[in-house]
Amino acid sequence: MPQPKHQLIALCASAALAASTTGFANSELIEMQGDPSSWVMPNGDYASTRFSALDQIDTSNVKDLQVAWTFSTGVLRGHEGGPLVIGDVMYIHTPFPNKVFALDLNNDGKILWKYEPRQDTSVIPVMCCDTVNRGVAYGNGKIFLYQADTTLVALDAKTGEKLWSAVNGDPSKGGTGTSAPMVVKDKVYVGISGGEFGVRGYLTAYDTDSGKQVWRAYSMGPDADTLLDPENTTHLGKPVGKDSGTATWEGDQWKIGGGTTWGWYSYDPDLNLVYYGSGNPSTWNPAQRPGDNRWSMTIFARDADTGVAKWIYQMTPHDEWDYDGVNEMILVDAPFPPKDEPEASSVAAVTTAETGFKMRSLLPGRKDAEEAAAPEPAPAAEPANVRKLLVHMDRNGFAYTLDRVTGELLLAEKYDPAVNWATHVDMETGRPQVVSEYSTDQNGEDVNTTGVCPAALGTKDQQPAAYSPRTGLFYVPTNHVCMDYEPFQVSYTAGQPYVGATLTMYPAPGGDHLGNFIAWDAGKGEIVWSNPEPFSVWSGALATAGDVVFYGTLEGYLKAVDAKSGEELYRFKTPSGIIGNVNTYTHKGKQYVAVLSGLGGWAGIGMAAGLTDPTAGLGAVGAYSSLSDYTQLGGQLTVFTLPES
Amino acid sequence: MRSARLSPLKAAGLVALASLTGAVSATESKGYLSFQFSPETPYYVEDGKVDFGTYNGFRRYHSECHVCHGPAGMGSSYAPALMKSMQVLDFDQFVEVVVRGRKGLNQQVMPSFASNMNVLPHMNDIYAYLKARSDGVVGVARPDKFPKVRKDAQASAN
């Protein structure tokens, strides 16, 4: 087993602790995200770390974990996202028809209220890959649900009463809702899905009290649409210039240009910036949209109040493989470049961790890990070069580390050795250096480009990674799948799929597995350990101060591994495949771990029947066992805890 | 007489099918050049190579249908395995479902493709491909193809 590294462990730097308190909701949520007894936002906190300071469940006792209670959602489709816990109430959501349940933790999950919208089923076929939903958001006493039909609903968190609703898109043109909203101060943000239907993506802010639209920022189009400031919005330090959102498109293609915003949103209260990524340019046939197709495949840093972008960075100009840039942006404060005398410092860090030192989280507003319980540690020497970083594991197979204040590109490295479509990212221009052999554009229409890694699913899709400030490592659920891709001419009809490429997927060469669960060092750009998984890992990870990392698998296992070594410590097979995200909370002082099972999503489509070697002939089905041999559909919540001692 | 479409390699496995569709033995074949789509003889295959229409069906299937029906018609967690459906559906039933769509149980919806110009013109080809999958003469991989012939006869070769 490879040794873990600890370059970033000295993260106990305290640079970012002061939380700005602009507005009541902001401070409410900032305070709440610092309380490890609840889980107030889909990815745990504004920084999307999916880290919990809870440590009752640790590496020594996690093997004793038991199921405390379960709950069936009554819905069969793929269950992405995960529960929120606020006080004594757990909120869970389902895929279409998008039910929301408020469950009473004081009463083994008895239903306090249930909300089930009436939606036209005609939205179902315009959802690209199953009818998933990635969860609800909490803020200002309300639960926000973003329905498949793009209706954003505000529910009273206590009663489930509908307070207002707003329609954010047009399903008859292929716009759908799958993402989890995010609340900042008095605004709630939602994106839009539908890149495979030629939808032009946008992020919209609504007023949490009235439901009125405050601003909307498109991924492409003239500056008035994109809210880019030609002089002050920068791309790798340079002003973007006038109408950069149309300048790299031919004709009116940008109007159906994709760049949808269906992933996760993060927020830095100090900088007052919202971070998210945009998806693939539309169509998948690159020949039909010459140019860089700005600003698809782009990381945006936007002012939370006005929507105006401070900086942007396009990761995959002129996409030729469907590598959406929507994966989560994890905000950490860490030394960069990492100090290069790891011997001494890592030893020191491990020792302190083992003697009960609780690493202080850097998240604004996040309290010191169990500050009450732990004796006040001697302040670790603070590295001088701590920077505000943004770490993003992109679908294109590169993990990016950027300065989240300026948008400066600091590091871009492959996080799966199989990645072959580009040799590297040029750090000056920020452009990936595309390998001609794998360029579906250079090979041209009607030509089958073979052996491209990763497949369109990406080295990682939306399933969010976790970050532990105690190890300084990122825990990343990944896919290990490659593809053939053949683009061809398509015509656009509003509301009809607008794909324009045929693709077939299969396991990465030489391997016998379709996924890995890895620990990533974002300072060095290195994999620290990697656990092969028979199927893609499509479940969001959770890292805890007990130095345990949790994730789910497509066969349905909830797994717990050692944060330092990756060694598996516990597994339990839940009733269906897990594509949901794990969370943790306490109730009456006891730590619980919760996850939704429910096979589906793109993973269920790609893998249900098993993938095969592309060159294998007839009868090759079963070369890699099919997922349907392991698990079946069915939405269920499973809650784990330690037995009473 | 309909043109033959049996691969000598696969002929043994296709006796049942041949009797169903009235296809004749490969010896009478004029080869892929004379092959023409019909619901009864939707594809031509010889030594693992298929006619261009069937190949186009593979392409169209994997751009328009596989996001729900899974790779190579094998089904997914969302929609049925069409390679199995084809054992019971005839051409008219197939066209009917694809054109009109269908609402299933458990919030599954098969969309209507009536206005989809990336599907409608290629209906014969998609049918041919799925039928070939169902008959076991085309594997999960991208099939080898004969070159395009007589565009008019090939219904919809792209």
From TrEMBL, chain A:
CDD domains for the chain: PQQ_MDH
Annotated GO CC locations: outer membrane-bounded periplasmic space
The Pyrrolo-quinoline quinone repeat domain, residue ranges: 39-347, 539-593
Oxidoreductase in keyword set: yes
Molecular-function annotations in GO: oxidoreductase activity
Known cofactor(s): pyrroloquinoline quinone
Keyword match Oxidoreductase: yes
Record-stated family: Belongs to the bacterial PQQ dehydrogenase family.
Protein name: Methanol/ethanol family PQQ-dependent dehydrogenase
Record-linked Pfam families: PQQ
UniProtKB keywords: Oxidoreductase, PQQ, Signal
Position of the signal peptide: 1-25
Automatic annotation (TrEMBL), chain B:
Span of domain Cytochrome c: 43-134
Signal sequence region: 1-26
Domain of life: Bacteria
Annotated InterPro entries: Cyt_c-like_dom, Cyt_c-like_dom_sf
One example GO MF annotation: heme binding
UniProt entry keywords in alphabetical sequence: Heme, Iron, Metal-binding, Signal
Protein name: Cytochrome c domain-containing protein
